[in-house]
Every structure is written in C-alpha cells, then in structure tokens.
Design goal:
Layout: H1 4-27, E1 28-30, E2 36-38, H2 42-49, H3 56-70, H4 85-89
Antiparallel strand pairs: 1-2
Length: 100
C-alpha cells in the first residue's frame, strides 16, 4: 500500500507533461524550410501582409484565421501564396481564396 500514493503522483505528473507537450505541438508546426513558426508570430506577419490594403479589418481577420490554421503567412503584401500551400489552397464555399 505504501507505493500507491507514488503511483498516483507519477500518473498525475505524466498526464500534466502530456498536456504540456501537446499544447507545444499544437502551437508550432515544422515548415518546409525546416524552421518552426509559432502562432504568436501571426499578428506581426499579418499586420505587414495587410498593410497595403484599404480593407485592413477583414484582411487581418482572415489572415489571422489562416495563419492560426496553417502557421504560415506568405511574404510581402500581395501574392507569393505558393510559399504556403495550406494558406494558398484554403478556399471559401464559393471556391474563392479564403486567405488574403
């Protein structure tokens, strides 16, 4: 009976580690270049991506949504979507591009 509290404690610590590592895996994604992009980088990347448009609010909304799913934002303020296949291939119900 003396080993039972240690087993419960070990199980609890293992569960907490599993949850922590799954959160880290969710927040990062290996990019084709071999580098990781964290979801916290989405806002500055989308701010630059949407800087040249006159429709900043919808551009930021969709860019952040796309970045959080794909963890990639194409370079520049327009085009270059081939760099991020997920970003490029996500379409609206009508078949148009979802990501700016």
């Amino acid at each position: 009976m003396a080993g039972r509290p240690y087993t419960s404690l070990l199980l609890l610590v293992s569960l907490l580690l599993l949850i922590t590592f799954s959160d880290i895996a969710e927040a990062t994604k290996l990019r084709p270049s071999g580098t990781y992009l964290y979801s916290s980088y989405c806002k500055p990347k989308c701010t630059y991506r949407c800087s040249a448009t006159s429709h900043k609010k919808p551009c930021m909304f969709f860019c952040l949504k796309c970045c959080s799913k794909c963890l990639c934002v194409p370079p520049g303020t327009y085009g270059n979507k081939q760099v991020c296949p997920c970003y490029n291939n996500w379409k609206t119900k009508e078949g148009g591009p979802k990501c700016p």
